[in-house]
Specification:
The protein is built from 22 helices and no strands. The protein has helices spanning 3-7, 18-38, 49-62, 69-104, 119-137, 140-151, 155-180, 184-191, 196-230, 238-247, 251-275, 292-313, 318-321, 324-335, 344-379, 385-399, 402-413, 417-442, 446-453, 458-492, 499-509, 513-541. The longest helix has 36 residues, at 69-104. Pfam families: BPD_transp_1 (PF00528).
Length: 543
């Protein structure tokens, strides 16, 4: 008699949670139906003759990239402009983020030593943290859309859009990093009479400098992707060339630009990984990296050269941006947004746009979770051709931003929320597939090994051992991406993909600023609501 016979029936053939699983499946189907309706999700329309003809014409050109010298030279010039716009935008974001983070960090306040904050510092800190949340909650493309109306076409609007949005992101994360650092040196300096800056430089900074630099370099990598997207609203660079090529159905040019962009993203990924402090100083561990001190100085020198070259090369008149007339024009423009349009009929339309945006983000994230898990199973296999091809596909999917996918899908799918939903699903599949593959590979192997010894098949081992152990992390990743996708869905309408973004583009184009203000406020509320729900759910999962 086998050991399993003595133990009774095989444990994977008895599922005590079967009823709960069936109930969960029914609940998902009930929620899925309204999402499909709101997103106008009818993928069979892509197989209609008209759609197939448009996709085929575009695809034939897409398979033959344009590689003549004139076009390549123009594309390379726009590539540098894209990198320069990201670099200058992040540099300005850093200027915004650092003072706000220092003022918003309670640990650097002398009153924190008593355990009770004074009323004025506490209210100021709350105001600054709220400002950081608002800056980061408004998507970069929305900032750029509004700034283009004041500054005109060109990289100036894109640079300021990155500066405002990333200033909020950097400031919020900087404050959280400073708050989580070891408080002992900082408190000792404050008790000794040191000021806020002295406590920061000599008490807090040494313990978290690596983490601060690492996150800043990571945001630079993200800013490069963002600067491409900003080109769709006239900010210049690769994005503007891609938008023009897509509108003209020039598949050969689109193919070349996408290949250049994917190479740029891959290079930024590798450079970002090399520059992060956590990867420096690995020579003593047997790698060929330079020593830590040398790497730090190389990093600072390279960043200084890059920032200066970017400022000099961008065709932006910085003096004009800060002139009295420009500031006055900006103030007059902002005043046109108030008061917001609050007519009941218009609010009803905004609510419908918000539901459409929410449905696009939820359905796109759900489809990506299913597809990403399927690809993660292939990517987590032992080394082989299939594993390599899957990783290549995942990197390609995540390298192309959602707005770029949407503009390409509009060729065959037409206007509406469906191409936006598919664009979110494609990009997020690449992101989640990579994260899920790593989570599956890192799952504890003891339970899976025990089931293999008991005679379970590969799929039974996955269903009853690997998946349950990795499920909290997989759900956490999916919720985090949904939190990101709500921002992306809010702006996909700029290219005609439905939701609040399409309303924003229409009202801005008609210079209806009060209506635009209401749409932006709806975006802000929706993003903050989804952020809060996702954060609460992830905290519960990670307990």
């Amino acid at each position: 008699m086998s050991p399993m016979s003595a133990m009774g029936a095989e444990p994977w053939r008895r599922d005590p949670a079967l009823t709960r699983r069936i109930g969960l499946g029914v609940a998902v189907l009930v929620l899925l139906w309204p999402l499909l309706v709101w997103c106008e999700f009818r993928p069979w329309e892509l197989l209609e003759p008209r759609s197939l003809r448009a996709a085929l014409r575009f695809g034939v050109q897409f398979l033959t990239p344009r590689v003549d010298a004139e076009f390549l030279w123009m594309a390379l010039a726009d590539t540098w402009r894209t990198v320069a716009m990201a670099t200058v935008g992040l540099a300005l974001a850093w200027v915004i983020a650092v003072p706000l983070a220092l003022l918003a960090t309670a640990r650097l306040s002398v009153s924190s030593l008593t355990g009770r904050m004074a009323a004025l510092p506490a209210s100021l800190r709350w105001t600054l943290r709220t400002l950081l949340v608002v800056l980061r909650s408004v998507p970069e493309l929305v900032w750029a859309l509004m700034l283009v109306r004041v500054l005109g076409l060109g990289p100036g609007a894109g640079v300021l859009a990155i500066a405002l949005s990333y200033g909020g992101m950097l400031g919020k994360v900087y404050a959280e990093i400073l708050e989580s650092a070891d408080a002992t040196p900082t408190q000792a300096l404050l008790r000794g009479g040191a000021g806020r800056l002295q406590a920061f430089f000599f008490g807090t900074l040494p313990g978290c400098a690596d983490e601060l630099v690492s996150y800043t370099v990571y945001r630079w990598e993200c800013a490069i992707r963002t600067s491409v997207v900003l080109g769709f609203v006239g900010a210049g660079g690769l994005g503007q060339q891609l938008d023009n090529a897509t509108k003209m159905f020039a598949g050969a040019e689109v193919s070349t630009i996408l290949l250049i962009f994917m190479a740029l993203v891959a290079l930024a990924d590798r450079l970002s990984a090399w520059l992060r402090p956590s990867r420096m100083g690995a020579t003593e561990h047997g790698t060929d990296r330079p020593p830590r001190r040398t790497s730090l100085w190389l990093l600072l020198a390279a960043l200084a050269v890059l920032v200066v070259a970017s400022f000099v090369s961008l065709p932006v008149r910085w003096g004009d941006l800060l002139s009295a007339s420009a500031l006055s024009q900006m103030g007059a423009f902002l005043s046109e947004f108030f008061p917001p349009q609050l007519a009941p009929a218009f609010l009803m339309r905004v609510g419908q746009g918000a539901l459409e945006t929410l449905a696009m983000s939820a359905l796109g994230s759900g489809l990506a979770a299913v597809a990403g898990l399927a690809l993660a199973l292939l990517a987590s296999r032992p080394s082989g051709l299939l594993r390599g091809a899957t990783w290549l596909l995942l990197n390609a999917l995540r390298s192309v931003p959602e707005l770029v996918w949407a503009s390409i899908l509009l060729v065959s799918a037409g206007l509406g929320p469906m191409p936006g939903t598919l664009a979110l699903a494609l990009h997020t599949t690449g992101v989640l597939g990579r994260l899920m593959a790593e989570a599956l590979e890192n799952a504890p192997a003891q339970t899976a090994q025990a089931l293999r010894w008991a005679g379970a098949s590969r799929w039974q081992v996955f269903a009853y051992a690997t998946l349950p152990q990795a499920a909290p992390q997989l759900l956490s990743y999916t919720l985090y991406r949904w939190e990101n996708n709500i921002r992306a869905a809010a702006v996909l309408g700029v290219v005609g993909a439905g939701g609040l973004g399409q309303m924003l583009s229409v009202h801005l184009g008609l210079f209806q600023m009060r209506e635009t203000s209401t749409v932006v406020l709806a975006m802000l509320v929706l993003v903050m609501l989804v952020d809060a729900c996702s954060y609460a759910a992830r905290r519960k999962l990670n307990r």
